[in-house]
Structure formats: C-alpha cells, structure tokens
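User: Could you write out the 3D structure of this protein bound to alpha-D-glucopyranose? I've included everything you need below.
Assistant: Certainly. Input first, then the structure.
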Amino acid sequence: MTIADNSRAFELGSRVVYQVYIKSFQDSDGDGMGDLRGITSRLDYLVDLGIDCLWITPFFPSPQNDNGYDVSDYCAIEPIYGTMDDFDELSRQAKARGLSLMLDMVFNHTSTEHEWFRKALAGDPRYLAYYKFVDAEPGATADDPGKPPTNWESKFGGNAWEYVPSLNKWYLHLFDVSQADLNWDNPQVREELAGVLRFWRAKGVDAFRFDVVNLISKPERLEDDFEGDGRRFYSDGPHIHEYLQELVRLGGIDGLMTVGEMSSTSLESCIGYSNPANHELGMAFNFHHLKVDYPDGEKWALMEPDIAELRDLFARWQQDMTAGGGWNALFWSNHDQPRPNSRFGNTESHWYESSTLLATCTHLMRGTPYVYQGEELGQTITDFTSIDQYRDVESLNYYRILQERGLTADEAFAVVHARSRDDGRTPMAWDDGPNAGFTTGEPWLGLCGNYPTINAKTEMADPHSVRAYFKRLIALRKAERVIQAGDVRFLESPADKVIAYERTLDGERIVVQCNFSGEEQPALELDGGEILVSNYDEAAQTSTLRPWEGTARIWR
Ligand code: GLC
C-alpha cells in the first residue's frame, strides 16, 4: 500500500454517510410525504449522531413511478419536495454545520416523461439516439408486436423491452417501463449528463451517488440470454471505465466524495471503479453480502442467511479490495433492502443485540460506513398484513408474478412481506406521538407499528439505546486511526456463526468478533488488550460470545 493510498484511507475512512430517503424522512407541510424543509429541520439530529455527509435520494421532478428514480428533469426540484430556494437553504444550513450533501444521480435511465424521451417519441432523430431504440419487424402492430429484440428481463419483472406502435420500435427499460435506458454510446448523452454534474457543482454540491451506474454501457450486439436474465451482458459493460472516467473529467468531480451503486458487479471491476489511479469514483456499493439469504440467487424466495458465505464474502471484499487499492462502502441497509435486523437477527427475542451486532460488524471494517435512516434506531420491517398497504412497484409486480408461478396468495404475501423494498421505506419514527412525528397528514406509506417504543425521542433519552450505540461507533471511527486506515485480515472463525477479523496500523491492533446467532458460541482465545466496544456489558465479558454479541478488543 503506498502512502498516497493511505492518505485517502484516512480521509474516506474517517467519514460516515447518512442516507435520507426523502419521501419518508420528515414532512413539513402535512401532505404525508417528506420534503427538503423537513430535512433542514432535522439537521441538528444528524449532527448529534456525528455523521459527516448526507446522501439524499432523488428529489428531482418525477412522476414518482419509482419514487424519484424516474427523473424527468435533472436540474430542478420536484414540487412535492419543495423549491430550489428550499434546496439552497438546506445546503446553506448543512454547510454551516459542517455537513456535506450527496446528491443521487440516476444516469442509467430517465423517466419516459423526460423532455428527451418525449421528443424521441415524437420521432425527433436527435432524441431517438438518446435511448436504446431498436426497430421492430415490419408489419408489427400494437396487438401483435412480434418478438422483442432480446429475452432480457426487467429488474422489476417482465420483458425489458417495450414496443412503441407509432415508431414501430422497441425501447430498452432495465427497470420499470417508465424508466427508459439512456444510450451512453452517444457522446451527446454523455455531455448532457456531465452538464448535470456541473450544474450541481456550481451550486456547491461536492458529493454524488451514482445509481446503478455499472449498467450504463450496453453491449453492441444484442443477444438472448439462455443462462440468465441478461445481466451478464450489460453489468460492468464493455466501455464502463472509459465512460466513467469521461463523466468524472467533464463533470469536474475527480477526487470528490463519490460512490457508485454497482449491480451484480465483480470485485475486479470495483477495484477499477474505486482505485484513485483510475480517476473514476471514490468507492463502490456491492450487494453480494445481501444475497446470502437468496436460495440459488432468487430474491423472491426465502431461506435463512448463510453466515459462512457471508463471512467469506466479507473477507474477500475487505482483503482483496484493499490489496487492489479499491475502497468499499460499508452497509447493510438502504431504501431497497428489508431492515437488516429483522433479516439477519432476531428482533423478537434480541432486538437490541441483533441491531447493534450488525453495526459492530460493518462499522469497524475498512471502508466508509453508511447509515440508512432509522437503522440507528433499530427500526424493523413492517407489520403490514395486506398487499393493499404496499406501494412499491417491484413488490406489487412480484406479488402478481409469484401467484402466476403457482404460489397461493398467502404464500406470495409471506415472501413480499419479508422481501419488499417498502420494509425499509416506512416513515422515520421521530417520537411516540401521532404518526411518529413524521407528518401531521396521512402518511404516504404506513408506519411500522412498533414506533411507540422504537423512536428517536425515546432512544435519545436512553444512554443504552441502539442509537446511543451507533453514536458511539461513529465517534470511535473519528477517534481511532486504526479503524480509519488500518489493514484488514479475516481470522479463522471459532464457530460457523461467528465472523472475526482484525485491523492493524502502526503497532495497534483491533480484533472484532461477531456472533450471528441466538446461541452462545466459542470466542477466540485472546490475551491482554482492552475492550474497545461491545453490545454487552463490558464489565461482564466472558470467554464465550453470548447471543448476537458483537465485541471489539484493542491492543495499543
Ligand atoms: C437503484 C435504486 C432503486 C431504483 C433503481 C432504478 O437500484 O436504488 O431504488 O429503483 O436503481 O433506478
């Protein structure tokens, strides 16, 4: 590792990012949806938690078919979220508190309501070339369009191509039919998107998240996938590094705090995306560790998480990314994932321990931790009992698809209940009052019924709360150089359900042990050192790991 690499490690490794899902964070005007002014009103809460940077999910004009990930104008504000003045005020207030704002750039696709797509639909050749349009067979009709250009599947279910009768062409949509994939092979598209970055840069924005950005480069030859859903052809596609480097250069964002969301990616690609020598991005999100409870890779089926596999994935991504000069974003949770404590822990018997175990495990790793709103409170998945309570397009599609595949309505509901993106999108629980203090109106998505006990107000008054533990982990990262930039090595697990690793820097050493089970497990035999942090009473440390115990010891 060169000295230059390690200075970046101290920089990125000393920060913690907090993700705000704007629609569910704080409503300021009673319409039941969160907004920019709501975020501004909660900045002091975030400062108290100790975070450095606020990632806000898209608040640009959008028909909201995918809650803002269907953008119809990249350089304006969606009215339900406020005005440009509200954004400027948020930005001023954040800066005054030393927080930076990270904007979410959805550059793989636009909404079909975007002016570019509307002009394409009207037949304007310039804008037809902005998207992935392919001619249909002559004589195709709306009723009988023939075969789509490939058999690729949309990530939200169904074929990824939509037929447009007036043009007699198909367009590609890897996500919803209202999210049309942009044609990055067209230099005009790349210039437009770099212009979007320059627009926000000129407003003082200095951090960016790039949505599914490793899907932007599609293969030249379009072919059917007989082994999968098509992703192997377009994930980490042929010109991906070239396009990212150009975007970073033209957008003027080299060296800023940036992160790419990488869908079905490889470790090798992520080293490329995040090694500073390549002038691409600061770090990468990968999702392999969040598929250890997908039987045969199938999200819409249930199984217990495979902890041995989880350990191997963490070990590989931590050690090999470090060796290759890459940088990991560390996370369990975001607006696309069910709450992790309900998924990897046991929130009925050990809610506090399982919520804090997960945080212990990732916050002490090498990388930059991300906290998703409500995760620091231990918010859980929903207690919804009917499909009518769900809003997410993917969940509603799969509820239908699972029944078409032969599941009963109850079986389909059980899967959706455990897997829905809405599980993580229920409103932020601020207090135990009406609608948890989120809105004075009718919330756009129901609250989780446990908010009278799991909420920010109650937990801020309790020094032993989940939130207090998160605050402690964040403060530790600021204080301990070995957490920020230390090397990382996974240790042989003393038991199947235990994950253990060490961090080392300049003669200091930390050993982290995490028991991913509700039973006692053997611990590593360690001599000396002192407890750095633990989710069990420090005075009562034992030679075994208790249910869901997460503990770290330090030698100075
Ligand atoms: C990303 C977003 C997700 C969105 C998708 C399409 O995965 O996180 O919410 O639906 O991209 O933009």
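The longest strand covers residues 498-505.
User: Perfect, thank you.
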